[in-house]
Amino acid sequence: MHKKIWTTARKTHKAGLLKAMMAASNGLRKVGIDVRRQLFKSVLASFGGKLELIICGGAKLDEDIIRTFDAIGITVLNGYGITECSPLISANRNKYQKPGSVGLPIMACRVKIDAPDANGEGEICVKGPNVMLGYFNNPEATAEVFDRDGFFHTGDYGRLDDEGWIYITGRKKNLIILSNGKNVYPEELEADIQKIEGVAEVVVYAGESRLNKDKETIVAEIFPDADAIQAMGIQDPQAYFEEQVKKLNAKLPPHKIIKRVKLRDTEFQKNTSRKIVRFTIDKTL
Fold this sequence. Notes:
It is a single chain. The chain has helices spanning 2-11, 15-29, 36-39, 41-45, 63-72, 139-145, 186-194, 226-231, 237-249, and strands at 53-56, 75-81, 88-91, 104-105, 110-114, 122-127, 152-160, 166-171, 176-177, 183-184, 199-207, 217-224, 260-263. By secondary structure, it is α+β, with helices and mostly antiparallel strands. Strand 2 (75-81) and strand 3 (88-91) form a beta hairpin. The chain is globular. 24% of the residues are buried.
């Protein structure tokens, strides 16, 4: 939906006007004047004209998307949950939210961070009436995810701020641990790459060199948006994406630098909930 807004604006040569209108609208809101539903009536019409609220979960949501929808009159509330917690753990509220956070824990739900690092990041653990009793007929798997205090280990990495708001960093099983001990959360890099125009899907991983097993190569594998690439008149997608990732690398710390960009002809394999199945990706270089 976010891409549709900007793709349409660019095709009609109104992207600059839309940005200016958003800035003006946000300025008016600071003095108590809200005319978003009138100013962006044509944009809202493409989503039915009556859409006011979106509750989002299931994957990391970029804050730029939330800001864009807020600017045109649609509130996006980001939340966090997992099936084993039936399924909600936390959520932002209509008038009580923090940028970048997935909200405060729901009532009666306790959250702690297991083995936090210097930045306060570690595995998110949950305890409360929303947490499952265990995996059906699988006591071994159940024992693996509950600690001695009864907290369920979600497999997600994140942190809590001083007021208890939750911030998601990435999935434990996706974490890239470099030989120097530095951690790289691929979800963070994927969120940045997803902002590049022409990217339909992207997965970041540690590539496995056939020639040198010890060589660390952070790879960004991209499935391009063919329509966007054509609309932009790009003749060499590989060169285009390499240049865009190079610009991104200039803003990253050395251990997060993406060393290779790999393009694919087909979209990534997904499960029934439309999440990319990472273990099916060929990571050899």
